[in-house]
Write a structure and sequence with these properties.
5 helices, alpha+beta, 220 residues
Length: 220
Amino acid sequence: MTNISSFRGGVLSEVIGCPPLIVDQAVVDAIIQLCRDASLFVKSFEHDVDASADVDTTDNDSITIDLSTYVSDTLRPITVKELKIDGAKWETTEKELENDVADISLYGITSTKFFNFPTIGTIKIYPMDTTDDVAVYLDMVWVPLRTMTSIDDFIFDNHREAVEARAKWNLMNQPEKKWTNIDLAMLKLSEYSRKMEEAKIAKLMGYTFGSMRVKQMRFF
């Protein structure tokens, strides 16, 4: 693991006078944005559903999956790339619904599965079949938590320039600071965009971190 402070030197060279702790937070925000934009952390797993035990018939025939069973609690989900029920793909729509919604028909659920994240470590999917046991396959994009103090070496070794460019853009856009530089900030944003696209291409070619497929607690 690489400490977040390892990015300071590359950032401070162009935001002279910025306090190190502010630099570190800009780096954290930049890492999260890069992971979001380039989908660097992709986790896939299969969850077996016991219809009689797992489906909550009092809450829109929903299931709630504890994601910490499959993925480190240092990451949080941001979206579902693919959802399959017993191998059949479902089109999904995220709805930020309250857990106690009484009439889910108001949200137009017909032939699609809906999901939301009731907490940072769970996903709720509905409606589910209340009679048959099924296997739910989820392919999800994750990002690190803002409380991170270190990041996998993969990010530093392969995406340091993108992270530093995004952090500089963030800091140079801060108003009325010694390091404020709006014109240079736009150049740094362009540099970040180029590096982010390179990261996307590298990912498509298979150079990414953290991809896994899991069923229950068996990694493969």
